[in-house]
Amino acid sequence: MIFDSYEAYKQASFKPKVCILGSGPAGTTIARKLGAAGIPVAVLEAGSREFSDESQDFYRGTTVGDYYFDLDITRLRFMGGSSNHWAGWCRVLDSQDFEPKAWAPDTGWPISRADIEPYLREVHDILELPDFRPDVPISDDIRWVQLIKSPAVRFGEKFADELDRSKNIAVVLNTYATELAGDGRRVTGARLWSNGQDAGAFTADYFIACTGGLENSRLLLWSNQRSNGGVVPNAAALGHYWMEHPTFQGGNAILANYNEFEVDASNEAFFSPTLAAMERLRILNFGVRLIESPYPNVKRLIADLACTAPDMAEWMSSQLDQRLRCAAQLYVAWEQAPLASNQIELSKTDVDHAGVPRIELHWKKSPLERRTLLEGLRLFGTTMAQKNLGRVRIDDWVSNGGDYPTNEETAGHHHMGGSRMGTDVLKSVVDANCKVHGMDNLYVGGSSVFCTSGQCNPTTTITALACRLGDHLSKVITV
Amino acid sequence: MSYFIKKMSRRKIVQALIALPALSLFRNQSAVPNPNGIDPDEIVEVNGWILKRSDLA
What we know:
The complex is a heterodimer. Chain A is of the alpha/beta class. Chain A has a single domain (2-245, 335-365, 404-476), classed as FAD/NAD(P)-binding domain (3-Layer(bba) Sandwich), CATH 3.50.50. Chain A has helices at 6-11, 25-36, 53-56, 113-116, 120-127, 155-158, 160-165, 215-226, 275-281, 295-306, 310-322, 367-386, 396-399, 459-476; strands at residues 2-3, 18-21, 41-44, 61-65, 89-90, 136-137, 142-145, 148-149, 169-172, 175-182, 187-194, 197-202, 206-209, 246-255, 268-273, 286-292, 327-334, 343-351, 357-363, 390-394, 410-411, 442-444. Chain B has one domain (2-55). In chain B, 28% of the residues lie in helices and 14% in strands. In chain B, a hairpin with a 2-residue loop joins strand 1 (43-46) and strand 2 (49-52). The longest helix of chain B is centred in the N-terminal third of the chain and has 10 residues, at 10-19. Chain B starts with a helix and ends in a 5-residue tail after the last strand. Chain A binds chain B through residues 251, 256, 304-305, 307-312, 314-315, 317-318, 321-322, 378, 381-382, 384-388, 391-396, 399, and chain B through 15, 18-19, 21-23, 25-28, 41, 43, 45-52, 55-57.
């Protein structure tokens, strides 16, 4: 069932066992799992079926530190959530992303990649993916990895009919849960805002926050403040360890044979380090993305090469004469170190229309990440040269430690951390089953539970974790 | 030999001649040891380029 207003929902006398906040990839996936298990679920979606400026305005906020996107642009507040502007790149976090790394503090998950692998078949169906091929080692240091471009499933569109037909799932649109109330052991209800006014309290036996990688922290911080610690009793890490995938063009490459890498439809290929290389260089994970260079850039690149290696430049020139695909721009996206100082706070001065404090995001890239970018490009360039696959030129701003460019991709719109998973209540918010520490009936879905970010786009892992949480709750909850 | 040269366009011959000095750069063969003891496969970073020493002029 889908209701366009809370008023319409109330008339249906639906009795949910579980209340899910948010209808993005995590919320929708968990709802479908629970609904299939016969558990009645209400999904409260703050937005409507379509994008609107009025709804997006609730997402405005500020960023302190490095340049970042406007917070009302980098996510979407309507049915299907941020899947509505998802580009569709898919890959599950590497097994090494789950392991602690001695050279990077606060890394490591309480679960391993093996814990989510049983759900990947379901994830492939949900995201409409073919099977992944195994990584291809190019050298001892570099792997050619695969990111699959899915049809960029819009969860709101794809599952609207199924949700509407379901007798166990009630999606309630235009219904904003402004805060949860709790007594330090259980969430006792959610405060609602609908149709421009307070709409009273909503009760269920279980609550799952799936409002996104920024909004989950905001909801829990505000709820905890209002209930004097009754919603997240162990709140030391709440809002902290927020992460993104910084993304910049870091160099260029000339390639002996571009076709050697079977690039996808968008002519892009991806490379990542081996764990051994990361350990040796004490760097984090990264992904080098090859994007075919436009012709004028190739000419400039060859002219630059001619100053250093004229014979090779001449050879390249002859190659360019015969086929245009012989050079690539190198975009690097890298794993961000989980730092407590990268955090979501509640604004002390600015609130949304419902009176909830807006987000103040504190975000800075660290020296470890800067080293990951430079050493990562050196690693990739060295492999390309040693294997005679091509030659790499690192951009001056990377080599010389210059400022990050302000006119580039900046980051992936991947919002991770803030309510991370762990066993140490001082450094995590949820346990291995995504249950908030100390609470009996409050769970968190989505990338806010990520302990580390890895280098790949998060939606595949979000969906896998959501399948796992849905499966877990299906066994825990009795109807 | 002369048969092939006659069949090739002058443009192709020039392209082949241009490519000759650099062909070894992309061959999957180790280079001949340098009598001066310099390893031609040593990786060097010059002006941002990550090259083999043998690439340098």
